[in-house]
């Protein structure tokens, strides 16, 4: 029997110490959305000595550009965006206190190094399940960069948002681990 792990935001180092590569869990609480255009603006603001549009310490950013909301819904389809597009910006945000990122696909070495150094994690959400993932989002408000449309920064409230840890604070990488395991198994076939 599998234990269901529930994690509440904001994330702390105590919480992150219990999460390991391959763990599946649910996130509830406040998260923020942003893709590459929003990330570029946040990093530019930091470079200019200005604060980002929200207090980044302990927060989670979901890499998503949701579709428009249908009547009665807070958000439209909300599937993860390919994460490597945020790689040029993520280390600066992690350094400032960002503790979690959600997207799809692997991350670069600089991002993984920053996650270990500053204690942050990267999780994957299921690609192709955008309509189902949007049901976990109970509230969504644009808080910055409205001109970016779907790429605007939103404050979202989530309930039991399902993720799997790809990179933990210990340097684990689920994608690399799975490739090694597959290579071992495939030599016997």
Summarize the structure in words.
This protein has 189 residues and is of the alpha/beta class. The protein has one domain (5-186): fumarase. The protein contains six helices and seven strands, in the order E-H-E-H-E-H-E-H-E-H-E-E-H. It has a five-stranded mixed β-barrel. The radius of gyration is 16 Å and the shape is globular. The two termini are 31 Å apart. The mean pLDDT is 93.
Keyword list:
single chain, 189 residues, alpha/beta, fumarase, five-stranded mixed beta barrel, 6 helices
Brief synopsis:
This protein is of the alpha/beta class and 189 residues long. It contains 6 helices and 7 strands; from the N terminus they run βαβαβαβαβαββα. It has a single domain, classed as Fe-S hydro-lyase, tartrate dehydratase beta-type, catalytic domain (fumarase), CATH 3.20.130.
């Amino acid at each position: 029997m599998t234990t269901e792990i529930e994690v509440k935001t904001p994330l702390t180092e105590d919480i992150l110490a219990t999460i390991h590569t391959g763990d599946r869990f649910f996130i509830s609480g406040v998260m923020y959305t942003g893709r590459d255009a929003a990330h570029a603006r946040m990093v530019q603001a930091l470079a200019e000595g200005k604060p980002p549009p929200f207090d980044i310490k302990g927060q989670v950013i979901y890499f998503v550009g949701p579709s428009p909301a249908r009547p009665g819904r807070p958000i439209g389809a909300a599937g993860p965006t390919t994460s490597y597009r945020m790689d040029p910006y993520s280390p600066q945000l992690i350094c400032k206190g960002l503790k979690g990122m959600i997207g799809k696909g692997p991350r670069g070495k600089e991002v993984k190094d920053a996650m270990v150094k500053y204690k942050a994690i990267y999780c994957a959400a299921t690609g192709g399940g955008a309509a189902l993932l949007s049901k976990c989002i109970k509230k969504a408000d644009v808080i910055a960069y409205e001109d970016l449309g779907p790429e605007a920064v939103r404050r979202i409230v989530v309930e039991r948002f399902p993720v799997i840890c790809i990179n933990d604070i210990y340097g684990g990488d689920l994608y690399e681990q799975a490739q090694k395991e597959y290579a071992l198994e495939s030599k016997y076939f």
